[in-house]
Amino acid sequence: MSDESTQADEPQVLLRTEGRAGFVTLNRPRAINALTHAMVRRIDEALTRWEDDPAVETVVIEGAGGRGLCAGGDIRAIHADARSGGTESIGFWRDEYRLNARIARYPKPYVAFMDGIVMGGGVGVSAHGSVRVVTERSRVAMPETGIGFVPDVGGTYLLSRAPGELGTHLALTGTPVGAADALLAGLADHYVPAEDLPALAAELTRTPAHEAVAAYARTAPPGVLEERREWLDACYAADTVEAIVERLYEVGTPDAKEIAGTLLAKSPTALKTTLAAIRRARRADSLETVLTMEFRLSCAALASADLVEGIRAQVVDKDREPRWSPATLAEVTDEDVARYFAVPAGGDLGLSAPA
User: What is the CATH code for 2-340?
Assistant: First the structure.
């Protein structure tokens, strides 16, 4: 085993090789391993190094601390940037989305241990991998509409390809899903009990990835999406967020009413923009095309009042009472949504799909 951590202070990303595997350990446990720009760069550097290293046959990404792989991007930093009118977040997203695309195209097995909380940017560094493992502790989500943002890191690409309208539901509500529902939605490939992850990690150092994971994979405990699938598909097939909410109330069950209430608590602008983004992503021909779209959405959101207010309410002050602007779905115009899809003043993502 070789420890490649060289900083005096313990680094935010730990890298090591053991046997045939290279391990990336996200190492900000107090922040549930939320991603910083430096972490994105370090992961990318490791992938560059290991791509051409014949001794490394498999890459494994995991999270330190036991609470989750990654809770997302460092939204406190994004909040500070947005409040000050800065542009540092744009550079972060540019490198992060390029990393997401690279993970999806990586030529070696990329095994993601999606244990515990896996949200936002955590989905980006895991769910684009070729071997995605969830556990009974997994809580996978793209919760961006709750902070006045839009699912990014290729999230609209992944969710637009979920069966029926399940991805639309998850994108708009930000609902965390467990193992079975993550598998159903196409966000993961295998269920492995959390207690078996250390043994699986050891097996990956000596056995080909797909063979190793198959030996530890089990049947996941039941989820909830399958039993709700019929009415979720019918409700979310509507053309507007207003119509989706109306259909949910018409279902007449407590579950559907609760979901409608959840939607009405989110940023109206983010909801309408997310619905448009999911529908566009469904028609897109590549992940790179969708990441470029999401980059535009993110840049626009950085200059919006709702992103600052949403992070304030959910993360900074934690009063859970955001004051959205506009405050209602009816007040959000088509022009408001269209502005999110415009090319940013600083230029596009500059990411093209492989031929």
Answer: 3.90.226.10
